[in-house]
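#struct-help
A.M.: can someone run this one for me? Single chain, 345 residues.
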Amino acid sequence: MAVDYDLRSAQKNAAPPKPKKKPPPASNKDGQNAALFHEHWWLKAASDGRYAEVEAREGEAVVGRLPYVVTSRYGFTQLTMPPFTHLLGPFVESGDGKHQTMLKTRVAIVKQLIGKLPKHDFFFQICDPSCDGGLALADGLAFQECGFDVKQQYTFHIDCRNSPDALLAGMNLKARQHIRMAEKVYKVVALDQAEPFVAFYLKCLEAKRLKPNIPLDRFAALYAECRARNCSQVFAAFDENGAALAMTFVVWDRRAMYYLLSVRAPDLPDRGSVNLLIWSVMQKAHDLGLRFDLDGVSTTGTAQFLSSFGGELRTRMIVTASGRLFASLQQAKSLLGLNTDNNFS
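D.P.: on it. Structure tokens below:
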């Protein structure tokens, strides 16, 4: 599959070099500790305005929020995360005081949020337990006490505040070799437009005879909102003939850069284009003084590849709850070998 995309045209649309600077400050509306995925503008753009949230208040102050998207299929109501949103869960202002006091406060706020959720047959969210100085780990206790199931998901974090030399030294030898080889034959371009990424993504899926499992028709609006806030970038790798080999979409907030979407041409010769893109992203994260979250790891093969870049293994919390009938039908689908995704398709 040859995905035609002119490199010279891409370079015209490429982001110009910018001085190093820290990520933009949070809005007062969303709180100084809110992650990117909790920002109201992100939730609105990612869900096409169809998200809702419950709040916990102390007086007039909002001390907790739990956003979600409501979907209904075959009579089942499901509360999940918006598309493109890899982490969510409660956002809580734990207050000040001793660690034990803040933990107690956080658990109480999360339980209050859970109690305000609308009736549902299925609940699914992924939470980052490292948020709020690690206090978010207590969210799992609150969910468990309220009858939810809490499991682990794995990811890798790379502290890109370290020097580029130190980051390279921390990699597996083969990963460094692939990067060095790729640097000789490929060119990485930062794109400011969403359309080339969407077109490339769709053509790569078409070559594999697959259909997108994300609403790519919303990507342009989300990308525009992110670019307006200088918190995202598409990196594209091109070969010597100007053909696109791989593209990666990353977003970031005050703490981390997230490896959100990545796609590679399935039937073009490739000598490390994805390795080179990840290295380019790591350098961007270094410029911003951020850690790099390589996203959820679902297989040992993926873990082996991502671990070669020198990251540390971290955990996230997968929080779920299913009504009896919904759980029974999902189990039946699993036994029949049918699709058992979270939207009961």
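A.M.: thanks! Residues 129 and 136 are 5 Å apart (CA to CA).
D.P.: also worth noting: The chain is about 35% helix and 25% strand.
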